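Let's practice the habit of predicting before peeking. Look at the sequence and jot down your guess about where helices and strands might fall. Then scroll down.
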Amino acid sequence: MLIKLENPVLLAKAIDIMSELVVEVKLKINSSGMGITAIDPANVAMVSFKIPKEAFAQFEVKDDSLGINLDSLKRILKRCGSNSTLFLEQKDNTLVINIHDRIKRSFVLSLIDIEKEDKEMPDLDYNSRVKLNSADFVDSIEDCIVVSDACSFIIKDGKFVIESKALNSARSEFSSDEAEIIAQDCKSRYSLEYLQKFLKGAKLSDKTTLKFSESHPLRMDVKAENLELSFILAPRVETVD
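Done guessing? Here is the structure:
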């Protein structure tokens, strides 16, 4: 396996985001590209990223599944700059990572054995889909974090509402003028601790797509140039909002 990526910053950001949710993962590399799909240790969230084959300047691979410690990989990829070129090459039970810019630097990352079953993003049914500006979504979630540890996503009368209630409250309302809303009336509640980690992904693109249903898991999709990033978050079930 030998891979060359001329702009590794986006990959570094994707790995950084995933490392906040999962630690040991299988990095899958095949004829269609590179990706990771994993579930967090608490079984509350799932995260996935894909980079297509076309994004790479060189892509000599077979079907490979490499056991990686994401924190270790993140630390190495953070050494990449905006003008760096990244080379990944598997040698025996290691991943050799070369970073070329003004000088050539080399790292060797030990691969690990992971016995977990391969994961795929589930094909869930949703009756609500909202596509909105990522900046607006980030602001709304950060507003909710100020007042509580959970928030509700609400569809009512054709409008999308992000609302958090505790001793204090915060609320953002979107009409069809501010967001693309294809939805039925519903309400579901989610942990802000996890949503806050998802926000880094939203910041990679101008638009964020949210899919949810009544008391159902949330799916959040972000598409940047040569990168697809997806999250699934279990609903937070409580008797009192």
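How did you do? Helices lie at 9-19, 70-77, 134-147, 192-202.
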